[in-house]
Design a protein that fits this description.
about 450 residues, alpha/beta, Aspartate Aminotransferase, domain 1, Aspartate Aminotransferase, domain 2, four-stranded antiparallel sheet, 15 helices, about 40% helix, about 15% strand
C-alpha cells in the first residue's frame, strides 16, 4: 500500500486547465469519429433503455463506448477497437475476461443445472470459504452490493431496535432508500464540516427518509464521537467503506478504524464494512484483513464470483441468527449453484496467495510509473496503490475525506479519459472511480498504460 506525492511545484493552473480543455475537445472529437458503431447502438438503446444503458453509472456524454467482448486483459468495442482493460467492470473483473478456469467452471456448473432455488453443497462450501477469509461467524448470500448493504442494515435495526443509519459523507452504498444520501453531493447542498447535510441524491424517496440518516466525514473520529455522544441511542449502525472508494481512493488514517470500532462498541452501534470494492481486491480477506479491524458485519459483491452477479453479507452469529427470528432476508437467486461453484473456484484456485502477489507487484509497478510521469511534468496529482485497486487523483496531496475531493481538478481527468481511450486504454468514465487490475494483466500491459499516461502528461504541459 503506497501513497505517492510530487515534490515538484505544479505548472501554472490557469494554463494547465486551458490546455486540458483544448486537449479534451480534440481527443473527444477523435473518439467520436472512431466509434460510429457505439453511436448507432446508443441511438437504438435509447429507444428501450433510459440513458441507453442498463445502469445509470454507465451513461456517457454524448454516448458511452459499448463493448462487444473481452479476453484476458483486453476488451473490444463495437467498432472492433482493441483496448487494455483497466475498467474491470467497476472492480468485478479481478480474474480478467474469459479466464480459462472460470469458463471451465461455468461449464461445469451449467452442465449440472444453473438454478434450483434449493441450497446446494457448493453454496455451503462457498460460504465457508468467505467466512474463513473475513473471519465471519455466519453469512447469507445476495445478488448485488445494494442487496447486501440493505440486508445488513435491516439486521442492524432489528438487533438494536433503532432506526437511524450513520454513513460517511460522499460514500455510495447502493441505491436503496436508507443510504441514498450524501453521495457526491453538490457543494451548495453539503452543509458545514461540523454538520454535513443529509442531502438526498434521488427523487422518489420517502419524504421523511432524512430523519433516519446521519452523515459524518471520513477519517474524523472526533466528529464521530461527538455524534455518538449526542445521538448514539438512536443510531442502529455505522456503515462505511474501510478504504473510501467513491472519490478515487482515500486510505484510513492510523487508528481511525480502531477508534470507530471502539465507539460503536461503546454505544451499541452495529459496525458495518461495505467491502463491495475492497473485498477480494486488496487482500484475500479484503480491508478486514489488510487493516486489522473486525467489524460486526461485512458486505461483499463485485469480485466475489469471477464477474457473475453474486453478493454476500455476514458477521457475528448473534446478529445473523436474527434471520431465524423474524428478520426477512431472501432472494430466489441467492447463492445459486452457478455463482457458488464459480465463486469457490475463483477463491480457491485463482485469487490465491500467488494471485495476490501478482496483483501487488503489478499495482506497485503501475502506481510508480504514473507517479514518475506526474513528477516529471509537475502535475498537481498523486497516486494510490492498493493491490488490484489504484488511481491517479488530480490533487497534489492525498485526500482525507470527501471535502478534499472537491479540491481535485476534474478537468484534468476529463481530458485524460478520451486521450487514453484513443490510445487503447479502457478506463472507468469518472474521476471518482479507480483502475482495477486482473491476474491476467502482464508487466507489458502495465508498461503500455504508463507509456500512454506519460504521453498525456507531456501533452498537457506542452
Amino acid at each position: 500500500m503506497t501513497t505517492t506525492v510530487s515534490s515538484r511545484e505544479p505548472v501554472g493552473m490557469e494554463r494547465l486547465l486551458a490546455r486540458a480543455q483544448q486537449l479534451g475537445e480534440q481527443e473527444t472529437e477523435k473518439l467520436l469519429a472512431r466509434t460510429p458503431a457505439s453511436a448507432r447502438l446508443y441511438g437504438r438503446a435509447r429507444q428501450t433503455l433510459p440513458f441507453g444503458v442498463v445502469s445509470s453509472f454507465q451513461k456517457g456524454s454524448p454516448y458511452p463506448i459499448y463493448v462487444s467482448h473481452g479476453k484476458g486483459s483486453h476488451v473490444w468495442d463495437q467498432d472492433h477497437h482493441e483496448y487494455l482493460d483497466y475498467h474491470g467492470g467497476f472492480g468485478a473483473m479481478v480474474c480478467g475476461h474469459a479466464h480459462p478456469r472460470v469458463v471451465e467452471a461455468i461449464t461445469e456448473a451449467a452442465s449440472r443445472g444453473t438454478h434450483f432455488a434449493v441450497t446446494t453443497e457448493s453454496a455451503v462450501a462457498f460460504g465457508e470459504e468467505i467466512c474463513r477469509r473475513f473471519n465471519l461467524e455466519m453469512l447469507r448470500f445476495a445478488n448485488s452490493g445494494t442487496e447486501a448493504t440493505m440486508d445488513a442494515i435491516r439486521v442492524a435495526r432489528a438487533a438494536t431496535g433503532r432506526d437511524v443509519v450513520c454513513k460517511i459523507e460522499g460514500s455510495y452504498h447502493g441505491h436503496h432508500d436508507a443510504v441514498m444520501f450524501s453521495v457526491i453531493p453538490n457543494a451548495d447542498v453539503m452543509g458545514g464540516r461540523e454538520r454535513p447535510a443529509k442531502a438526498p441524491v434521488s427523487k422518489g424517496l420517502v419524504k421523511d427518509a432524512s430523519k433516519y440518516i446521519e452523515v459524518v466525514p471520513f477519517n474524523d473520529a472526533e466528529q464521530l464521537e461527538r455524534l455518538f455522544d449526542e445521538k448514539g441511542q438512536e443510531i442502529a449502525c455505522l456503515v462505511m467503506e474501510p478504504a473510501m472508494m467513491n472519490i478515487g481512493i482515500v486510505l484510513p488514517e492510523v487508528a481511525y478504524l480502531k477508534r470507530a470500532r471502539e465507539l460503536c462498541t461503546k454505544h451499541g452501534v452495529v459496525f458495518i464494512y461495505d467491502e463491495i470494492k475492497t473485498g477480494f481486491t486488496i487482500a484475500p480477506g479484503g480491508a478486514t484483513e489488510r487493516f486489522g479491524v473486525q467489524p460486526d458485519l461485512v458486505c461483499l459483491a463485485k469480485a466475489i464470483s469471477g464477474g457473475l452477479p453474486a453478493a454476500a453479507f455476514g458477521g457475528r452469529e448473534d446478529l445473523m441468527r436474527l434471520i431465524e427470528q423474524g428478520v426477512s432476508q431472501m432472494g430466489t437467486y441467492n447463492g445459486n449453484p452457478l455463482v457458488s461453484h464459480v465463486g469457490l473456484v475463483v477463491l480457491r484456485e485463482i485469487l490465491d496467495a500467488e494471485g495476490y502477489r501478482t496483483l501487488a507487484a503489478l499495482g506497485a509497478q503501475l502506481s510508480a510509473g504514473c507517479q514518475k510521469a506526474i513528477d516529471t511534468y509537475g502535475l498537481p496529482a498523486h497516486t494510490i496503490d492498493l493491490g488490484a485497486k489504484g488511481c491517479v487523483s488530480y490533487r497534489q496531496t492525498p485526500m482525507r475525506n470527501y471535502r478534499d475531493f472537491l479540491e481535485t481538478k476534474p478537468e484534468l481527468f476529463a481530458a485524460s479519459y478520451p486521450w487514453l481511450l484513443n490510445r487503447g486504454i479502457f478506463m472507468t468514465p469518472g474521476d471518482e472511480e479507480q483502475w482495477t487490475l486482473s491476474v491476467q494483466h502482464t508487466e507489458g500491459d502495465i508498461d503500455e498504460y504508463i507509456e500512454v499516461f506519460t504521453g498525456f502528461c507531456r501533452a498537457l504541459t506542452a
